[in-house]
Amino acid sequence: MSSLTWTEVFAYHRTRKGIGEKSLLVDRGESGYRNVFLPDGRILYMGEGRRGHQAPMGGNLRLLLAHREGRPLRVFLRERPGVWRDLGCYRVEGWRYALLEEEGRYVYWFTLAPGGCEGGLSR
After folding, report:
1. Pfam families, from UniProt (predicted)?
2. What stretches of 34-116 adopt beta strand conformation (E)?
3. What are the pLDDT tens digits along the chain (123 aa)?
4. Residues 6+ apart with CB under 8 A from 47
5. Domain architecture of the chain: domains with CATH
6. What does residue 21 show for φ and ψ, rounded to 5 degrees?
């Protein structure tokens, strides 16, 4: 699997936020969000909003709608500064809204499962 530059990712993703119209950005904690990579290939993706209770708006609403509509989203993994990998498409398999006890606030946890579209980004 080849690496992508931020310029290539941004051309597809079109925002600096983690949740775009048709794609998501994930990392291994560098952004402050706590994505969890499960052994079976699924990802627990923390919703948008780093302070206060997260709300069903913006990127969170986008993921809730993707779940309801069964619409896949392309996922890009930040491997190191300026280097990204296209993980392919994932579908929002489920979600929960739960208390993040250590921060005293409610957050969305979206379960992303691989699959839903074919092929990677063309260079």
Report:
1. SRA_ScoMcrA
2. 36-37, 43-46, 73-80, 83-100, 105-114
3. 679 999 999 999 999 999 999 999 999 988 888 899 999 999 999 999 999 999 999 999 999 999 999 999 999 999 999 999 999 999 999 999 999 999 999 999 999 999 977 665 644
4. 54, 59, 60, 63, 107, 108, 109, 110
5. 3-114 (2.30.280.10)
6. -65, -40
Tokens of 13: 């993703």
The span from the CA of 96 to the CA of 62, in Å, is 15
Which is nearest to 107 in space by CA: 120, 91, 96? 96
**What is the spatial distance between Cα 33 and Cα 105, in angstroms, rounded to a whole number?**
14
Other CB atoms within 10 Å distance of the CB of residue 43? 20
CA angle 113, 92, 29 (to 5 degrees): 75
Using H for helix, E for strand and C for coil, what is the string for 68-86?
Answer: HHCCCEEEEEEEECCEEEE
pTM of the model: 0.91
